[in-house]
Amino acid sequence: MKEKTCFVIMGFGEKTNYKTSQTFNLDKTYKNIIKPVFEDLGFFCFRADDRPPSGNIDKVMYSNILKADFVVADLSTLNPNALYELGIRHALKKNTTILIAEEGTEFPFDLNHNYIHKYEHLGKDIGVDESRRFKLHLTETVERLLKKPEIDSPIYTYLPTLESPSFTDQEIKDIKEEIKEEDTSVSDFMELAEEAKQRQDYKMALKYLEKAMEIYPHDNFIRQRRVLITYKWKQPNEKAALNTALDILKKELRLETTTDTETLGLAGAVYKRFYFLTKEDIYFKKSLWNYSRGFYIRQDYYNGINLSFLHFFRASQMDNKLKAFAHFGQALEIGEKVEELCKKIIALKNFKDREDKVWIYQTLAEVAYSKGDLNDESTYLNLAQINAKGNSFFKDSYDEQHKKLTKAIQKFNSKFNSK
pLDDT: is 329 or 178 the higher one? Predict the structure, then answer.
């Protein structure tokens, strides 16, 4: 009996729905839900980034879409490539195409005619309970369609006599060999890069990212990781590394026009480091501008806490009392909003499953410190340390900004509160 196949249409890594500015880690969906479900049912399940690039990439893609027994298309971020590939599948295959998407996604008119199975991310990740629920739901759906296939293509609904091909046994064998020989997909390279970053082996992290770029040279998620690792590594020197990171932001990530909050946050960080390295005010203003854009577009806590910090710092530099207090007040107001955002996230029922718990606690610690609540700061730092599980990456980042924040608040108080 010929082995059944499932091809998964989706991006990899973290992708953003630009309509809602929500960011999701699609690798979690693929590796924790879709792939296990189909493998447990005896399918050979794969994604485009599992296969090494060779020959005509479009030809390989069309073959996957056309011949796979099942296709699962994740439309959570309304990715144009995924929508295009789904259209091809509907044109070529009458049934066994399963559409899934994040709960609350607003679909174009034509897609609303299709049944879309909804699941829910928890931040970028997916909670354990939701993962279990949706795996069960997806399993039941596949089992039902195996017993009684239903026409799900709009084309075949109106042209029911069309027939479409499937993979031969030899083609399945060849694909497996390709994947086995490569042995490392793009998402694997990204995971290896993240692990290297966590142990602060930035040289190795960049090597893994370069491997990923060879396969997907135009992917913004990989570009963003390159920016982060490049400026963290500081090689051959800090200024040169910052210039390289800024070059990627401007030329490859379209910094001047983007609304991607991850890109804006990275730009804020690069310009902030430029300022503290050179003391040139233009860099401070650009850092403030990019963090502002990132915070006000999506109420993002990372951009928000850094924006608050910059206003505290600016307040300490002002000799004009009115301007100084304006910046100080704005820093406190933004900090309060960031605190509110973080506490709402913590109140979510599946908060324990989030991957960014460390950064949320660290953010709350910084807000608490800026307000003078040292007990709360200590509490949140302890929670961050527990969830960091021995990783010092977050603590180094916190300590670096904490020192600058301390000096800024002390300088502000010595200037104005003693008068």
Answer: 329
Closest CA to 404 of 286, 284, 289, 299: 284
Q: Which of 258, 331, 339 lies closest to 299, judged by CA?
A: 339
Structure tokens at 394: 């977050």
In this predicted model, what pLDDT tens digit does every residue of 319-341 receive, in sequence order?
999 999 999 999 999 999 999 99
Q: What pLDDT sits at residue 393?
A: 65
How many Å apart are CA 107 and CA 77, to the nearest integer? 10
Q: Is 99 in a helix, a strand, or coil?
A: strand
Read off the amino acid at residue 211.
Answer: K
Give Cβ neighbours of residue 359 (< 8 Å, ≥ 6 apart). Answer: 301, 302, 384, 394
Residues 90 and 153: beta-carbon distance below 8 Å = yes
Q: Is 275 strand, coil or helix?
A: helix
Instruction: Give yes or no for residue 418 having a pLDDT over 70.
Output: no
DSSP 348: S
Beta bridge partners of 22: 17
How many angstroms separate the CA atoms of 352 and 362, rounded?
A: 15
- The first and second tokens of residue 297, run together, are 């577009």
Q: Residues near 333 by Cβ (< 8 Å), separated by ≥ 6?
A: none
